[in-house]
Amino acid sequence: MNMAQRLDGRRAAERVQEELKRRVEELASRGILPKLVMLVSEADEVSLGHVRRKARFARGAGLVAEIRTFRAAEGPDALRSAIDRLNEDDEVDAILVQLPLPAGWDEGEILRRVRPDKDVDGLHPENLGQMAYGLPRVWPCTARGVGELLHQHEIGVHGKVACVIGRSPLVGWPIAQWFMAHGATVVQCHRQTPSVAVWTRQADIVVSAAGAPGLVGAEEVRPGAVVIDVGLTYTADGPRGDVDPGVRERASWLTPVPGGVGPMTVAMVAQNAFDLCAMRRGGGRG
């Protein structure tokens, strides 16, 4: 029995970093050094781990990457002020506000405060609107990471049927928009979808971003489908994705968890930061 080939996000991210380093060097030769600043709650160890990985990757590609922490006790006004200062700092090209924010804070209002042309996550309403037209400044990081992973493995999406499970504004919805912009027919499933399997069985490409371990089983995927597991849940048995391991016996390609989409999301933070710098200070997209 043939087993699914591995969509290796770690190796793909390394390739992104290698190419990005070359492009950063080209900009640096003109006196321009891309700078990314990430804001994160000092009390959230999980989020701190995420931003440290993002900073490490970006620095490895030659970008300036800073982590600045804030305290929940200071209230959201302190974070608003920090964002305002970064918006006005001409040396800062990209701003990331690491979610989640402390309980009770209005995440939407905070994200809207980031200047659209410095919004590395692409989540400002202006950027989301441009994305709906298929013309974003930058694609949100996970959506772009999924696209780059498929591109590196020469998996085309034009004319294919893609089923995306999940519709969050950070992950599921942007992924669906990316597939539509690149010529796929998209079915988007969510909590109110009566039978997700009806749609996944028809899809050439299945993307699950629900955060529900084992949601997609082997019998819910057509033979030969490309399956991308964006979900990541930490359980007593370790990290689990949305896709049951048995899917590897039916799919043609499958992302591992961890080591699939996660490294690509991290890589695209640096790529987006570079592109925002190139557009704002370097005369065009990188």
TrEMBL record:
GO terms for cellular component: cytosol. It comes from the Bacteria. Coiled coil: none annotated. Residues 140-277 form the Tetrahydrofolate dehydrogenase/cyclohydrolase NAD(P)-binding domain. The keyword Cell division does not apply. PROSITE patterns: THF_DHG_CYH_2. NADP(+) binds at residues 166-168. Its EC number is 1.5.1.5, 3.5.4.9. InterPro entries: Aminoacid_DH-like_N_sf, NAD(P)-bd_dom_sf, THF_DH/CycHdrlase, THF_DH/CycHdrlase_cat_dom, THF_DH/CycHdrlase_CS, THF_DH/CycHdrlase_NAD-bd_dom. One of its GO terms (molecular function) is methylenetetrahydrofolate dehydrogenase (NADP+) activity. GO terms for biological process: L-histidine biosynthetic process; methionine biosynthetic process; purine nucleotide biosynthetic process; tetrahydrofolate interconversion. Residues 7-121 form the Tetrahydrofolate dehydrogenase/cyclohydrolase catalytic domain. Keywords: Amino-acid biosynthesis, Histidine biosynthesis, Hydrolase, Methionine biosynthesis, Multifunctional enzyme, NADP, One-carbon metabolism, Oxidoreductase, Purine biosynthesis. It catalyses: (6R)-5,10-methenyltetrahydrofolate + H2O = (6R)-10-formyltetrahydrofolate + H(+); (6R)-5,10-methylene-5,6,7,8-tetrahydrofolate + NADP(+) = (6R)-5,10-methenyltetrahydrofolate + NADPH. Gene3D superfamilies: Leucine Dehydrogenase, chain A, domain 1, NAD(P)-binding Rossmann-like Domain. It holds the Pfam family THF_DHG_CYH_C. SUPFAM superfamilies: Aminoacid dehydrogenase-like, N-terminal domain, NAD(P)-binding Rossmann-fold domains. Pathway: One-carbon metabolism; tetrahydrofolate interconversion. Homodimer. Catalyzes the oxidation of 5,10-methylenetetrahydrofolate to 5,10-methenyltetrahydrofolate and then the hydrolysis of 5,10-methenyltetrahydrofolate to 10-formyltetrahydrofolate. Belongs to the tetrahydrofolate dehydrogenase/cyclohydrolase family. This is Bifunctional protein FolD. The gene is folD.
